[in-house]
């Protein structure tokens, strides 16, 4: 006896299979991410210069003295463990600026672009906010700033550029990109240069690359840097501090 399946039964079954395949593919995709190395993890301990509060949503670096009323929110790069930017954040905090790394769902900023609003609400003592993002994190940090120009005074694009036009935005911009970066290329920046805030400073670190912005090993597709990771990050921190001081 032959079984006859109607189209009404086949279509929902096929749709369910497609959904399951998509969910499985997404799970596999997000489970393969870049992990923070030992240098980054060592920066998660309290020091005489800053304290660290690491919870399920944020990693907060709070200066212990000479606290500024300017704070920095940080959106990590896609599929990069947020702890990977702990050393960078710790050095900014050690200079007096409260710095909060945002933990994103599945390590993807696109899944919670507005999470910076929680940071701002949790820190009423901060009067002036800047937001930074690495790679795709910078894209969504820029989007957040565009939609909250009353809250954000500056955007730091670390190997990143705006996806949506921010040329008429009220906030200042800072691009920091390594000359050896092969993931956010010079062509990428040039094509999108007219989308940056009108008041943007463009900084190119000679010999720097993409993955050395953080501490998570080698990233596929990038060029090797011709300067050390420590040197690139030292320059990056110094440029960020100058920018924060200007807000």
Task: Write up what this structure looks like.
This protein is of the alpha/beta class. The protein has one domain: 3-Layer(aba) Sandwich (Rossmann fold). It contains seven helices and eight strands, in the order ααβββαβαβαββαβα. The protein has helices at residues 7-31, 38-42, 86-94, 116-122, 136-147, 186-191, 229-246, and strands at 50-54, 58-63, 70-75, 98-102, 128-134, 152-158, 172-178, 200-205. The protein has an eight-stranded mixed sheet, with helices on both faces. Helix 3 links the parallel strand 3 (70-75) and strand 4. The chain is globular. The protein starts with 6 loop residues before the first helix and ends with a helix.
């Amino acid at each position: 006896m032959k079984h006859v399946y109607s189209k009404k039964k086949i279509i929902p079954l096929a749709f369910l299979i497609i959904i399951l395949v998509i969910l499985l593919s997404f799970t596999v995709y997000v489970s393969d991410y870049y992990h923070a190395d030992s240098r980054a993890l060592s920066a998660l301990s309290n020091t005489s210069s800053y304290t660290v509060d690491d919870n399920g949503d944020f990693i907060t670096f709070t200066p212990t003295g000479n606290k500024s009323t300017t704070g920095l929110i940080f959106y990590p790069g896609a599929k990069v463990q947020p702890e990977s930017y702990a050393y960078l954040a710790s050095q900014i905090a050690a200079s007096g600026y409260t710095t909060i790394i945002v933990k994103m769902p599945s390590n993807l900023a696109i899944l919670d672009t507005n999470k910076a609003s929680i940071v701002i609400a949790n820190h009423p003592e901060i009067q002036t906010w800047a937001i930074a993002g690495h790679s795709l994190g910078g894209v969504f940090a820029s989007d957040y700033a565009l939609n909250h120009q009353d809250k954000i005074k500056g955007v730091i694009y670390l190997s990143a550029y705006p996806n949506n036009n921010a040329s008429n935005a009220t906030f200042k911009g800072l691009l920091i990109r390594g000359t050896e970066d092969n993931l956010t290329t010079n062509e990428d920046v040039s094509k999108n240069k007219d989308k940056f805030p009108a008041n943007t400073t463009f900084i190119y670190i000679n010999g720097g690359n993409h993955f050395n912005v953080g501490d998570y090993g080698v990233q596929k597709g990038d060029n090797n840097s011709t300067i050390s990771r420590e040197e690139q990050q030292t320059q990056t921190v110094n440029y960020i501090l100058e920018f924060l001081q200007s807000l």
